[in-house]
Amino acid sequence: MFDINNILRENIKNLKPYSSARDEFQGEASVYLDANENAFGSPLDTAYNRYPDPLQFQVKKRLSEIKGVPPRNIFLGNGSDEAIDILFRSFCNPVADNVILVPPTYGMYEVSANINDVQIKKVNLTDDYQLNMEGIAEAIDAHTKMIFICSPNNPTGNSINRDDIETLLTNFKGLVVVDEAYINFSRQKSFIQELTEYANLVVLQTLSKAWGLAGLRVGMAFASEEIIEVMNKVKPPYNINEASQQLALQALQNTTQVNAWIKEVLAERDKLVLELRNFEFVLDIYPSDANFILVKTTDAKGIYNYLVQHGIIVRDRSKVELCEGSLRFTIGTPKENVILINTLKNFK
Ligand SMILES: *Cc1c(COP(=O)(O)O)cnc(C)c1O
């Protein structure tokens, strides 16, 4: 059985969190002289002179309606990258503990582990970019606190087999972090509905991709109430600024626009795959559940440099193990995708 007390760091278990002015008085008053703010106002039209809600209740309430998860199971971070860092700081003792990463995958797990001086055990994905379940089982030891699974996976684009993730959730005594940054583009269903089933599940999502709000820096973690409480205790008190909270709330009203974009991205992705197949330098296009495709080519460096010369930037993943020769193309607007294809037609 999973028990959060078996994986929580002792210093975090005993941590008395910072108590902000907004924590100590909640409710409505007419005169606020408790937080050393500028009582006169701000140079801007909007009332940015006041500290924001530390627990972002309005945004969570709206997210709760969209996701079908109660606000108490939602953590908001300054991007999901902040949620990743907070998981390390909450659960992993520097030097002593380790996490399992399954490359090729999103780079921030490794960077965050390194910043926190947490050991990394890498178990490469198989040739078809799925989990090496035996390898993972062998890698787990008494100090393994978390396993990071990105699904759909960045940079390969495929979803990870659901049964395998469930096997890990059932058998692993630490946290299984399922990063669903690209879930809106996926045929697979989210793990968010499994939170009541698995006490060791953390699902990461973000407003940076499908929602078109990368500049606002709002990421989400969904987990049990006890995990969320720990994360809230460790996070900086005002980690989502007032402008981001207001704008996120406003954007979250517009699901219609976002759903239309997702549809269009998927249609464009299919079109791009068909077009790219015609090029001799394209060896393989991996099936994608995301808003990008990984394309194996005969000359990744050459194509990358050629595209840069023509003002088109893609992601060179050819130095990444298991992605040799591959470039990652984000799906652009129809016009951008035509420019990409037409430019590639002149590559020699
Ligand atoms: C883009 C991306 C993120 C980062 O999300 P932010 O919310 O912008 O920090 C997280 N995970 C994966 C796999 C990503 O590709």
Which features would summarize this protein structure in a list?
single chain; 348 residues; alpha/beta; Aspartate Aminotransferase, domain 2; Aspartate Aminotransferase, domain 1; seven-stranded mixed β-sheet; four-stranded antiparallel β-sheet; 13 helices; 11 strands; binds pyridoxal-5'-phosphate
CATH class of the largest domain reads Alpha Beta
- Give the name of the CATH architecture of the largest domain: 3-Layer(aba) Sandwich
* Total helical segments: 13
Helix content: 25-40%
How would you characterize this protein structure?
The protein has 348 residues and is α/β, with parallel strands linked by helices. It has two domains: 4-253, Type I PLP-dependent aspartate aminotransferase-like (Major domain) (Aspartate Aminotransferase, domain 2), CATH 3.40.640; 256-344, Aspartate Aminotransferase, domain 1 (Alpha-Beta Complex). It has 13 helices and eleven strands. The protein has helices at 4-7, 10-13, 21-24, 57-67, 80-91, 108-115, 133-139, 162-171, 225-234, 242-251, 255-277, 300-309, 334-344, and strands at 74-77, 98-101, 119-122, 144-150, 175-179, 201-206, 219-222, 282-285, 292-297, 315-316, 326-330. Strands 1-7-6-5-4-2-3 form a seven-stranded mixed sheet, with helices on both faces. It has a four-stranded antiparallel sheet with strand order 8-9-11-10, covered by helices on one side. Helix 6 (108-115) links the parallel strand 2 and strand 3. The radius of gyration is 22 Å and the shape is globular. The mean pLDDT is 97. The structure holds pyridoxal-5'-phosphate. Pyridoxal-5'-phosphate (PLP) binds next to helix 5. Pyridoxal-5'-phosphate (PLP) is lined by residues 79-81, 106, 150, 154, 179, 181, 206, 208, 214, 219.
